Amino acid sequence: RTAPTQPQPNQVCCHHFGQCCLVFCGVLHRCQGYIKARMKSEEKRRTRFHSGHVPFSGIKTYVDPDTYEDPTQAVEEFAKEIDPSYICIERVIGAGEFGEVCSGRLRLPGRMDIPVAIKTLKGGYSEQQRRDFLREASIMGQFNCTNIIRLEGVVTNSRPVMIVVEYMENGALDSFLRTRDGQFTVLQLVGMLRGIAVGMTYLSDMGYVHRDLAARNILVDKSLVCKVSDFGMSRVLEEDTEAAYTATGGKIPIRWTAPEAIAYGKFSTASDVWSYGIVMWEVMSYGERPYWEMSNQDVILSIEEGYRLPAPMGCPVTLHQLMLHCWQKDAGQRPCFTDVLSFLDKLIISPGSLLTLATDTQR
Ligand code: ACK
User: Fold this and answer.
1) Which of 38, 51, 54, 105 is in the most buried spot, having the most CB atoms within 10 Å?
2) How do 100-106 and 114-120 pair as beta strands?
């Protein structure tokens, strides 16, 4: 820059004042730019993975572990490291893509021991598999709700790598209902649905989109409390045997997924609400397969043509109406989880509203 010409004494002030003003305005402008950029990036960070969800101020929002440069940092931040000597593995209860799922007990010093489920990462894994495995823990560790599976902690400093969660005596909801066909009252079934709606309301308030809400991903405890589980989106969909590849290359559980999510990957809380409607149908039909043996392609075409699942046998008409509401083509017309929850609460408070069955009205 060229130096300013020597000013006259009475001009000094003015000149300097002008310069100061310019510098100040420049700094102010840059500051505002900086603040705006910060706000923008914060906004981006919050919404990038939330499919347009605008979180309420003051309410904790979900942080996607993928936004961490080093994903192990996310695990450290959101999951407690457990000393493996506190874990007592008792038996194998299932198999996941990454290794066995076991039941056992967690004996933390100075605390009563509690039953837990332990997911293990089998040996010979790649660094990517380890990250994918632990990703679920860093998501689950951010939630604190009675209707979301509780993370007790992780073992990452020794082998095998483990994720320890609360134990759910009755296992997955779909198989549980299939083995107990017709054994519950409508009110008990609505109680289960209410629990799932509480969990989903919590997740949507946190800005988390589940993408794979289905009865197989709900666990049931000994008191019939239902809890949402299986977090991790892409990994979960890889593992989900129901997930099929779409024309656009995504892996999606077609029967549970909203049409806009299948067609152009628009996953949102509203698409979770569609899946919730399918879970309602699964629960009211005691674990029947949605759309029975129809092929995925036929399901997509039928939905496009306006076909919707009919009410299961013995299903109150009000519940089927709620399902149909969740399955509106226009995502904006679907209820939000708070609406679903208050609707179910009203039914529970006045159970007389559950007496008219959908089959009665058809007749
Ligand atoms: O239907 P299930 O008994 O419930 O079979 C599957 C199996 O492990 C493989 O995922 C069961 N499972 C998973 N997490 C838990 C848990 N927290 N408590 C009890 N069982 C669980 C699931």
Assistant:
1) 51
2) antiparallel
The domain that contains 76 carries what CATH number? 3.30.200.20
Specify whether the backbone of 233 is left (phi greater than 0), alpha (psi in -120 to 50) or beta.
left
- Residue whose CB lies within 8 A of the most ligand 1 atoms, among 147, 165, 217, 219, for a mutation test: 219
Average of per-residue pLDDT across 1-30: 37
75 and 182 belong to one structural domain: no
**Is 205 among the catalytic positions?**
no
Ligand 1, residue 169: give the atom nearest the CA. Answer: 19
Q: Structurally, how many domains does the chain consist of?
A: 2
Inform me whether the pLDDT recorded for 330 exceeds 70.
yes
Residue-number span of the structural domain to which 328 is assigned: 173-362
Residues 304, 159 within the same domain: no
Alpha carbons 319 and 6: distance in angstroms, whole number: 85
Domain termination residue (choose one: 151, 166, 181): 166
DSSP state letters, 258-313 = -HHHHHH----HHHHHHHHHHHHHHHHTTSPPTTTT--HHHHHHHHHTT--PPPPT
